[in-house]
């Protein structure tokens, strides 16, 4: 296998309905440079492993398959797959998402090469359901051309399936990632310490919202706890970010909770989620508002007392 300019880092677990589309969307990329696809398969209980094994046999020169002997969990699978990538740039993709523009990789590489101070490049993504039908939502809906660490700490503008990292600026991810419940946001915060995040205003990927999704299927209180935990762990390891993150939260409290609100409200697009709900819409809305403000209060208290 030739030395790749871009490594595509794919993690997958129980994605038998989606992983083939994810891989095919990468293979359809038109580039002027070599790429490799590094797939971390986390000992799925469905047919995901056989599907990725078949793909690897057909594209043995381009696909490197990392098969876990036991389920190691999303974050360990991600770290080990990320660290196995050899390219100058690493593009991220989860096994239930896919790319929609065959020029995505070429465009992002050209942007990163023309902006050598950028630590990563990202773009917008359209939200689809489990069957690939549009949910009528795009993230981010608007964004500055570049984001600094204070801006990305305030709100997560980035979908994992849109990220291309400059590996020289983020060659290793810290061990505390193993304990996190989400990885894209802290990755972007750490990258922004090295250089601005560059935004490409083009929807070139689809982010899938479905009942089996690790994040979208989680309970609201678990999501809030995960975000709080992420902030605290990043701050413990990066005390130099304390003032920037605290000031970002304090400057606009509505911005601080907007990302959480969007994530929670998106679940209402799912018919099965609506039917399965055991509380009325007014009661659920009130519960969310109370939970979000308690979360914000907890974050603010911890930031102001952080040593």
From TrEMBL:
Highest rank taxon of the organism: Bacteria
Keyword Transmembrane: no
Pfam families, A to Z: Glycos_transf_2
EC number: 2.4.-.-
GO molecular function: hexosyltransferase activity
Keyword field contains Oxidoreductase: no
Database matches in Gene3D superfamilies: Spore Coat Polysaccharide Biosynthesis Protein SpsA, Chain A (3.90.550.10)
Keywords of the record: Glycosyltransferase, Transferase
Domain named Glycosyltransferase 2-like: residues: 7-135
PANTHER family: GLYCOSYLTRANSFERASE (PTHR22916), UDP-GLCNAC:BETAGAL BETA-1,3-N-ACETYLGLUCOSAMINYLTRANSFERASE-LIKE PROTEIN 1 (PTHR22916:SF3)
Protein name per the record: Glycosyltransferase
